[in-house]
Amino acid sequence: MDTTISYQQPVSIFKWIFGFLFLLVGFLGIISLSLFGLIPFAFAYVLLKSEGTEVDLEAKTYRKTTALFGLKFGKWQSLDNPAYISVFNTTENITVRVVTAETTNSRPIIELNLFFENNRQVTIYNTEDVRHAFDVASHIADALMIDLLDATEKGNFKWVDKVQYRTNGEILHVD
Questions:
Q1: Residues 102 and 84: beta-carbon distance below 8 Å
Q2: Is residue 119 in some structural domain?
Q3: 76: helix, strand or coil
Q4: How many other C-beta atoms can be found within 10 angstroms of the C-beta atom of residue 85?
Q5: Predicted confidence band at 2 (pLDDT cuts at 50, 70, 90)?
Q6: What are the contacts of 36-44 at 24+ separation with CB within 8 A?
Q7: Is pLDDT at 1 greater than 60 in this prediction?
Q8: How confident is residue 122, by pLDDT bands cut at 50, 70 and 90?
Q9: Domain for residue 16, yes or no?
Q10: Which end of the chain is more exposed for a tag (fewer CB within 10 A), N or C?
Q11: How many domains does the chain have?
Q12: CB proximity list for 32: less than 8 A, separation 6 or greater
């Protein structure tokens, strides 16, 4: 596995289409020497950017990223005394608003949260696949030499035997 783990929220096809339309209008505005051409650029930025997180396991740093056209920006921060990583089952809500209507759609996701000694947490990854979530969490836990917590069942948090998971691929809980 790569030493840098990266998660970036995908940009929907509709945002890509409208974002590029705003870019086109902005370029046309700039070509015609109008300052109003900057406004569509701002709308394009809002539509085309995506948020995410990167963890450099070798340097033991992480950063929250904002990406635009594949270029990622963010300040690297030290992973000071990570305590454990948890695999957490939750839902992601997506709200869509139009002038007179609003709807919220939910979908189940698995989040990987890195906890520090002072109970500060950083969500570093999310996926819909439980097996993939445990694979990534095990990789991070081994690289940072921290424990792995299975929090996929509400109110039933258990520590995972990393050696058993790494050798046999099965989740065995320990006390």
A1: no
A2: yes
A3: coil
A4: 26
A5: low
A6: 43/19, 44/19, 44/20
A7: no
A8: confident
A9: no
A10: C
A11: 1
A12: none
Q: Which two tokens stand for residue 9?
A: 């929220």
Alpha-carbon distance values, 132 to 25, 31, 87, 93, 141 (Å): 41, 48, 11, 21, 14
Q: Are strands 156-160 and 173-174 parallel, antiparallel or unpaired?
A: antiparallel
Residue with tokens 């409208």: 18
- Give me the amino acid identity at 100: T
Which domain does 96 fall in, by range?
A: 80-174
Please give the structure tokens belonging to residue 32: 């015609």
Retrieve residue 113's tokens.
Answer: 């949260």
Alpha-carbon gap, residue 147 to 149, rounded angstroms: 7
User: Is residue 129 one of the residues assigned to a domain?
Assistant: yes
Backbone angles phi, psi at 77, to 5 degrees: -125, 150
**Is 169 inside any structural domain?**
yes
Q: What is the pLDDT of the chain when averaged over all its residues?
A: 86
Chain length of the chain: 175
E strand or H helix at 31, and its extent? helix 13-31
Q: Among residues 162, 163, 160, which one has the least CA distance to residue 173?
A: 160
pLDDT, tens only, 67-118? 998 899 999 988 888 899 999 998 888 887 877 888 888 888 999 999 988 8
